[in-house]
Specification:
about 350 residues, alpha/beta, TIM Barrel, 12 helices, 13 strands, about 35% helix, globular, binds N-carbamoyl-L-aspartate, binds zinc ion
Length: about 350
């Protein structure tokens, strides 16, 4: 198969940042029709009014159809969340355990404090997107997702059975099992977690552009993710988690977490699906399962992927005084998007 025509994909987990970085990266997601935009700005996007203002800045920067989220804090007002959703300003709410990842200091420490919001969301049918990692310093970083599922997600799922949950950027077999074992639960998978494992990041030298959170796991987990992404399981869909940081913040003594994959995400995914003999299932993963989970129609227009000469990708993209380095899987890519 050398040509593949798909319904236009969406990105169900994207970081667009703000100001000059927003202006640089917003056009880089042009292959995607819609994107769930993460609210972890500094300060975070907490209220409906802030989400509407951020939506306008994103559209002015060149991305037409952002699906906005609110950053859940212990002070979030349930009425504001319900009103923002009813007005069509937001699509979902994002839960970050405090301290789990980039700009998550205002996240949730005491889950009892957000019960009223979760109950209101459950009643109003508002999806909750979850960064699923505990933050305890005594839990090994490679175990933080599995521990979160045991300690936090399992009781939360039980307490709010009708709440629609998206477990974001799943990285482990435990997370896959959780999604497959619970109703009203879907999951995004990133490009880098399908293409790489912790050896790619750490063996033979430490590669900062592979460092993201949740951290890459061992190859057996990667294999499980590749299996559920490519076998047609509708509970799993693309969320690139493309997370641009300035190159100087990645190539640093304390490297920022995040892989920048938006520009070539679809070429990477076609490579993965081809390796798995599953090119016929790519459309489900990138264009169909996500809209179905969120109760939206898939896009009507199409994109075409063509297999050809190795892509010549820039190492970095630059503009507006910003420089961001592209995620490099370490081998050539042959699928071109037109
Ligand atoms: C994201 C970021 O940089 O905002 N980083 C990451 O490693 N994935 C935050 C996140 O999604 O955890
Ligand atoms: Zn993210």
């Amino acid at each position: 198969m050398d040509t593949l025509t798909l319904r236009r994909p969406d990105d169900w987990h994207l970081h667009l940042r703000d100001d000059d970085m927003l202006r640089l990266v917003a056009p880089q997601s042009a292959h995607f029709a819609r994107a769930i935009v993460m609210p972890n700005l500094v300060p975070p996007v907490v209220t409906g009014a802030e989400a509407a203002a951020y939506r306008d800045r994103i559209q002015a920067a060149g991305f037409a159809r952002p699906l906005m989220t609110l950053y859940l804090t212990e002070a979030t007002d349930p009425a504001d969340v319900v009103a923002a959703h009813a007005a069509g300003v937001i699509t979902a709410v994002k839960l970050y355990p405090a301290g789990a990842t980039t700009n998550s200091a205002s996240g949730v420490r005491d889950f009892d404090k957000v019960r009223p919001v979760l109950t209101a969301m459950e009643e109003a049918g508002i999806p909750l997107c979850i960064h699923g990692e505990v933050t305890d310093r005594d839990i090994d970083i490679f175990d933080r997702e599995a521990t979160f599922i045991d300690r936090t997600l399992t009781p939360l799922r039980r307490a709010h059975p009708a709440l629609k949950i998206t477990l974001e950027h799943v990285t482990t077999a435990e997370a896959v099992d959780f999604v497959q074992g619970n109703d009203n639960t879907g999951a995004t998978i990133t490009v880098q977690h399908l293409m790489a494992n912790r050896n790619d990041m750490l063996a033979g030298g430490m590669r900062p552009h592979f460092y993201c959170l949740p951290i890459l796991k061992r190859d057996t987990h990667q294999a499980r993710l590749r299996q559920v992404a490519t076998n047609g399981d509708t509970r799993f869909f693309l969320g690139t988690d493309s997370a641009p940081h300035p190159t100087h913040a990645k190539e640093a003594t304390c490297c920022a977490a995040g892989c920048f994959t938006a520009p070539h995400a679809l070429s990477c995914l076609a490579h993965v699906f081809e390796e798995e003999g599953a090119l016929d299932r790519l459309e489900g993963f990138v264009s169909l399962h996500g809209p179905a989970h969120y109760g939206l129609a898939p896009n009507e227009d199409r994109i075409t992927l063509t297999r050809g000469a190795a892509l010549s990708l820039p190492d970095r993209i630059e503009g507006h005084g910003q420089t961001v380095t592209l995620f490099d899987p370490g081998h050539p890519l042959h699928w071109h998007v037109t």
